[in-house]
């Protein structure tokens, strides 16, 4: 009950914020929510399941493009377009997973990178279907149950997707499935010896988190009512990886903190130093890995452990 | 223990690596609650036998029946699901998890809750999770790691790591537990403690297959011993008969200077 109230309270605060913001700030806020949602699901894929996949942003792109194409070019109503787009993302994720989960580490990264690059090529060369390099514009979110959804409305839908992602992943993380994922990450041979079907577990984790990325991508498509290829390219895929590593790979809270920190620093640094902000990220990531491979959350745990130890010493 | 039906029956187990026959037509069976030792000098085929049984290697020929059902050639996770759990000679803990979580992973084959039920948070799913936790706690106490319950596994000593391997394998409620050279790397007092634990496991009715190089550890512990040399069974009997078997003495004399010599 207390837990439920905490979720409702958190959701209420997040949902009130958009109504207090100026248009530019609202845009930052919505994109921040999008990044946080992606970081949460990517943390489950990379940090908890140990799959070094670089296709997460590509699946956000698949969700975004699919829902828009299905609505504007196939003429599907919004609800159906969402369902079909999610099914499409799930089918593609399953295909990639069946091939990719047989690979590990570096090779998985390469295979999923190739998939992500292939998507960009398809988007760029897709002619009128994908709008080529210019992407798709001139569409808008139809009224939902008679309500016209404005800027704050899309933020609230993003919050719903974010919280659903977090709630689902928290729940399965605290079950045998989460333990199986972590066990495979730590030692797949020992995991198999404990009765874990490694390929199946990896496939489920990959497909589930990729569909979550697609769902976030769908909402993103209606932020500015435009989608274009560069957003879903490799730069952002790497940025997502950085967020999870800096925040503390494997920790849900770490992923959220990492996403907020890196996204905000990008938003504030980019107007000042332009593309040199990427250099700053490089330095942050290297320092974070050198000082504490478990990221900011790892540092916090360390500080807390030291405090507890000091208190114990003081008591005895 | 004799007279009971064998739990597992191995017949003609053979494993060839190219031209080398590492295990050659091995026959044996294990009964519930029995400690069966499998010994032999280095290169005798002990580890290969272990890896074939646990599903890590594919056998070249032979059969392995559990309750009369053929299970040879199943992948490791299916072997585990049949109630055959193992430990690793070089401890293989899940390093990102606590001691308790490691043991809980061992209970993987016992879970019944589907992901759907977990998402819905059904009472049965929650009760199962609590039961797994309680069982892990009980096993941690059983192997004597109570103090380390919430510790990171990287903080454990090698000997404690071996105890963790044991508790983790037991969490799967095995019918057979396979130990791969469990005494290797342990101090004499740790060996004694592990010996007591292994007897305790057998007393629970679980069959134990103990692959071991160190005869001083194995002989007092085993109900029955099989001796391998060059991939073939050269002796099969009680520890007392093995101790004096000329073929066994020969095999070990050739290597380390007599039965019971240091490993």
Describe the structure.
Chain A has 2 domains: 2-232, no CATH class; 233-316, no CATH class. Chain A is mainly alpha-helical and 316 residues long. The mean pLDDT of chain A is 91. Chain A has helices spanning 2-16, 23-48, 56-72, 78-100, 105-125, 127-130, 151-173, 176-186, 188-193, 198-220, 234-247, 252-273, 277-291, 295-315. In chain A, 45% of the residues are buried. Chain B has 263 residues and is an alpha/beta fold. Chain B folds into 2 domains: 1-83 and 174-263, P-loop containing nucleotide triphosphate hydrolases (Rossmann fold, 3-Layer(aba) Sandwich); 93-173, no CATH class. In chain B, the strands form 2 sheets. Chain B has a 6-stranded mixed beta sheet with strand order 6-7-8-3-9-10, with helices on both faces. In chain B, a hairpin with a 2-residue loop joins strand 1 (8-17) and strand 2. The longest helix of chain B has 21 residues, at 123-143. The two termini of chain B are 30 Å apart. Residues 256-263 of chain B have low confidence and may be disordered. The chains are: A mainly alpha (316), B alpha/beta (263).
